[in-house]
Structures are given as structure tokens and as C-alpha cells.
Specification:
single chain; 3-stranded antiparallel beta sheet; 8-stranded mixed beta sheet; alpha/beta
Amino acid sequence: MNFQRVDLNAWERGKLFQFYIQRMRVVMSLTVDVDVTPLVKYARQNGLRFYPCMIWVVSKVVNAHDHFKYSWDPEGHLIRWDSISPSYAVFDKNDEQCTKLVTPFCEDLWEFHARFLRDQETYRDVRGIVDHQPPNFFDVSCLPWVHYRHFDVHVFDEGTFLAPVVTWGKYELQQGRLIMPLTMNIHHAVADGFHLSRFFTEVQEQINTFSED
């Protein structure tokens, strides 16, 4: 959990950050349809689960950019994590309750997938938030029951939550391709529309690296 404190006077985004934190606390939300056909096929052919594979994809893109890794230390100083991990929900269809936990991100999909399965087994009887979750996290959720057009998560704190909130819905067959809505919420203090848009572009590029053969 290594991080660096940010010197607002030296940071090129310092003045913009202060404006959006002190005078206009804005969270941007955008939903884009992504083609998950290659990832779904790869998961099925290799006996992997789509959910952790998709978590890995968005985690990889999030960790590739500093704009998505800002937070606060206990003294209230702005910091930038070296890496952040997904905090996600596992839904139990029997009791319709969720377990919220963090699986540490790693660059290898297969290792992350194995960690996901181990964590799910470890906490299968836990409901709610698993204790002792690390502070370097971003939020992930999934609505696999509906293909939506827009989804917005309101974080009711003081308007200072800086990590991304990523959500996706049900993928559906459209003209021979599996199309899925993907949403990101991000504080305008740390990112602009350019960075938000690049997230979706790079998620699609990462998905496209999986062979459909």
C-alpha cells in the first residue's frame, strides 16, 4: 500500500483540483456500451468466470493512470496510491444478500482469477462488508439482471471521495455481438472528460486483446 503525498503547488492539476474540491464538487458519470464478445469467449473456452475477468480488465486500466489513484491519508493530505484494488460485491442468490470484499489486483489475469475464487470461498458465509479491507481501493459493482442505458451511483460523503466507481450491466446479443453497458463515476477534481473517455477506449482495447478463435 505505497503512496506519495501530492504537493498541490507543484502538481500541474493543483489549481483545478482545489477549485473542484473547494468551490464546485462535481462527480462525472458516463455509460458506454462495450463489446465483450472476445472476453466472454475467452472465459468460456478456458473455464474462467466472466465476472472476475471483467473486474481484472477494469482494474488493469484503472491502475494504468494516476488520475484514478488519488485518495486521502489519515491526516487529510492528498495522496496518490502506487496501485489500487477492486472492492466488489459477491451476490448470493439463495438469501439475496451480498458480500463486499477486496481482492488485491495483480497484472496476471489467471493469478487474479485464482485469488478471486479463494477469497470468495473464504468469505462465502460473510454478509456485508468484510472486515479489515485495505484503504487503496476503488468500487466495482454489477447488475447482471438488466441491460441498462444509464446508471449513476451517488456517494453521499462530503463530496471528497476520489476513487472511481465502476458498474456494468447484463450483456446482450446485438447483431451477432455481446454488448454490455459499462459505467464510470469519477470526481472532476482528479479527472476530466478526456480521462473518463479514455477509460472506456482502453477497456475496449484490453478486451479486444483476447482471442476469439
